[in-house]
What we know:
The chain is mainly alpha-helical and about 240 residues long. It has 2 domains: about 1-35; about 45-230, Orthogonal Bundle (hpI Integrase, Chain A). It is built from 10 helices and 5 strands. The strands form 2 sheets. It has a 3-stranded antiparallel sheet with strand order 1-2-5, with no helix packed on it. The protein has a two-stranded antiparallel sheet with strand order 3-4. A hairpin with a 2-residue loop joins strand 3 (about 95-100) and strand 4. It is globular. The N and C termini lie far apart (about 55 Å).
Amino acid sequence: MRNIHGIIRKALADAMRKGSVTRNVADLADAPRARGRKMDAWSADELRQFLTSIEDSDWYVPIYLAANTGMRRGEVLGLTWRNVDLDNARLVVEQQVQSVEYEASVADEKTTGSRRTIDLDPRTVAVLKTWRRQQLERRLSTGRRSADEFVFTHPEGGPIHPDLFSQSWSRLMDKSDVRRIRLHDLRHTHASVLLKAGVPVKVVSERLGHSSPAFTMTVYQHVLPGMQADAAAAFGEAVFGR
Length: 242
């Protein structure tokens, strides 16, 4: 609603400047206040505890991948094996699965920043290799073939509906002893853990597919004060010793 108000107000301002209307009636309407969703994130210990608790779940691998790459829900579900290079430990994000009129639909990433390459750590590569082997064994046993080669599919083949992923996450949360967060907060967890570990903001921004490091700093400014304190201490120690 706030965005619509802004568009109409700008359009009428242009029209008034050109003499098409005598006044901008959108100025008489109060735009609703922007209310951002509360962002939450797990600590590294909380994430490890949760992943350990769901190792036997069918959703373990997609959740593990989301947590270890910072990929969005739709990006995880839209990933295909042709965009996963396990030998060189990296994957390419170029499409996502969206819910359009309650149907799962595959769409290309809209921005250049969203289309990105993400490097993988050895543990994530090992998890994906094991998953690939299990997936191929299942296909051989059922005789089912898939032209799209999605990394994660429903039993009949084809991409998983994003809402199913979120619902399954909620059920896992209900059974977990770890503090409850949203599925999207895995992305925030990935970024927060990296920033607290001293990874440069630019690198974190590239992994997340943000438009710029400045946007990343704005979103995760709550993490930065502690980082700056560590930086100040590190500088003093480097110059003057302990």
